[in-house]
Task: structure prediction
Amino acid sequence: MTNQNKIYIGLAAFLGVFLFALGRYTTPVKTITVTKTVEVEKKTDDKATDKKDDKTIVIVEVKKPDGTDTKTTTITDNKDNKSTDKSTDSTSISIDKSKEVVKSNDKLTVSILAGAVSNWSGLSSPTYGLMLSKPILGPIDIGTFAMTNKVLGFSLGVTF
Result:
């Protein structure tokens, strides 16, 4: 395998990991959906009554598809004296929906490092260190580290 093929494979692997991490970063942590329902009920009564003993009562109730109800009551006196009682009930419902998407905040990551140099005769004494990293652009983070054997460095990473 030539060096040019190795470079192409390495770039393709890096691009795949970067795109996977970018997809994981762009998804929200949680989504909050709030639904508010307000119901207003209106009642109107109009009454005109003639007091007679011989009466006929007709009740008409209409329910419309938009949710309003209309109820009409008609009282008729058989002696040609009329009396009406009209009652109108209407109900209106309003629904408000709101959606809030919560993304994760950029946080500082603190890591404790430990390591040792390996050679053919065994391991050298252990080395310890501390690393700090913070996201800078999407899933990409940058950091710095220091080790007890006086090694200082910077890091570039991807969160996925």
In short: The mean pLDDT is 76. The chain has two domains: 3-28+104-158, 34-99. The chain is about 15% helix and 60% strand. The two ends are 30 Å apart (CA to CA).
